Amino acid sequence: MADALDTEWAVRWMRETARVVAENRVLLINLDRVIGDADHGENLDRGFTAVVAKLDSSEAPETPAAVLKLVAMTLMSTVGGAAGPLYGTAFLRAATSLGDAAEIDPNAAAAMIRAARDGIVARGKAEIGDKTMVDAWTPATESAETAAQAGATAPEVLTAAANAAHAGAGATEPLIARKGRASYLGERSAGHQDPGAVSTAFILQAAAETARELFA
User: Where does this protein have coiled-coil stretches (predicted)?
Assistant: First the structure.
């Protein structure tokens, strides 16, 4: 299928995510320092570095879902704090949604993002407006589904998701946190973007950029 995403794309997505997270590690640390434990950037950098090492040392996964399952297991075992379980659950649910398919069409891409988002909500019990990564994942999900229904290609679906995630992350700045460690700060949590929402935007940005590059 033209413009369908495959295992090569999934591997490229993870390698690009590791690069983007490493590049923005200090930014994520600083965002987390003011409203959290200051470990979000360090934890994610360690996790995705481990993902790349696992991809380099293992037999190549045969399906996109196999790549995402490897990511989930690696993040759960290497990332501390809330990010490990949340992102691990997200990638595991995303993998489950894809099943054994060799290719990801636009509708499957949108469903993958929704599955990841629903996994995060189920694990963290957060809602839109709580100033968490859900504030990036929810608009990303809605935009991906709208794009798919409008006949967008899979790369276009991911681009819509990434753009919405960045907007969602920006929109967390004035919010007062109602979940996680940031909620302890009350009104002092306002004025800062949520680090999990920002890292979500980076991860989905990497998905979109690698998809576009494959079909450039």
Answer: none
Domain-located, residue 44: yes
Instruction: Evaluate whether 129 touches 138 at the Cβ level (below 8 Å).
Output: no
Which range (9-18, 37-46, 66-75, 106-115) has the least confidence?
37-46
Contact 140, 161 (CB under 8 A): yes
Task: Please enumerate, as own/partner, the contacts of 54-61 that have beta carbons within 8 Å and a separation of 24 or more.
Answer: 55/11, 55/14, 55/15, 60/7, 60/11, 61/7, 61/10, 61/11
Number of domains in the chain: 1
- What are residue 5's phi and psi, to 5 degrees? -95, 145
pTM over 0.85? The answer is yes
In this structure, are residues 99 and 65 in contact, taking their beta carbons and an 8 Å threshold? Answer: yes
Asked whether residue 1 is assigned to any structural domain, the reply reads no
For 139, the domain range is 7-214
* Backbone torsions φ then ψ of 16, nearest 5 degrees: -70, -35
- Domain at 194, CATH number: 1.25.40.340
2 occurs within a structural domain:
no
Q: Are 202 and 153 in contact (CB under 8 A)?
A: no
Q: How far apart are the first and last CA of the chain?
A: 16
Q: Buried (b) or exposed (e) across 131-144, using 16+ Cβ within 10 A?
A: bbbbbbbbbbbbbb
Please report how many Cα atoms fall inside a 13 Å half-sphere around the Cα of residue 176, on the Cβ side: 5
